[in-house]
Amino acid sequence: MTILDIGLLTGFVVDENDLTDLTSGRDKYIQKFEMDKQLSERGSLIIYVDKVSHTVPDRIVFRVHKITNVALLQPAAVGVYEYYSPGEHCVKFYHTVKKDGALNRLCSDQQDLCQCAEVYKVKVLKLDLNPNTDFYEMKIEEVLKEGSDPDVREKVRSFMGHANCRESFGFEEGKSYLIMGRSADLPRIDDNVELQYILGEQTWIEYWPTREEGQTSVYKDKYIGISGLAQTLTDFGCTT
After folding, report:
1. Which residues are paired to 43 by β-bridges?
2. Best label site of 31, 95, 179, 233, fewest CB within 10 Å?
3. What is the pTM of this model?
């Protein structure tokens, strides 16, 4: 028995009638499905199938419906594993616009972004929330891809974003995140070398679970996926 653990994009719901049809009839594509709100804050769709081939592409088709407009839609993860071997995961990210939701696809499909992207693991130190523009004080914990702000590891930088995007960002003090941005979004605060980062429509933000959280069912898929992306970028850089 193979498990498909499908994280749902914020603001979207699955069409359960489609899934019910897939569990019945002569061509029974899936064994059963269930919605699990405990696996993540966005909720997860769990699909049980007999097997998934590692050589032949398989496709399960069902509809999802957008019920809420989200200013900055973040990718979601899809995990595949055997029922009796949950520790051996294959994880991919997906998105409605960014093809496959994966970092190497982001770079190859949007070369301008790849060529000038900063990719950091940051820790939120302070939130300054305002009616129009929010300011975030963050410590750069890891530099996965350096851009126009050199030697920034372990330094504190200011990030700013529109207040309407606050919920989509989901920042919390003391927590860490993966942030991918563009050099064009880094105006200078003054004549010194300090830069201010703007969180815009081409910024990709993902919560980075702690190692301890990565051992739990809630964050296991995300931790494996984001750690793999970070390691690939560190080892090989952007693939074009």
Report:
1. none
2. 31
3. 0.55
240: its two tokens: 């074009």
Amino acid at 9: L
Domains along the chain with CATH numbers: 2-94 (2.60.40.690), 118-236 (2.40.50.120)
Specify the range with the lowest mean pLDDT, choosing from 18-27, 111-120, 168-177, 194-203: 111-120
Rg over CA atoms, the chain:
19
pLDDT in tens, 10-48: 788 899 999 999 998 777 789 999 887 554 444 678 999
Arithmetic mean of pLDDT over the chain: 77
Gap between the Cα atoms of 59 and 93, Å rounded:
16
Sequence-distant (≥ 6) Cβ neighbours of residue 112 within 8 angstroms: none
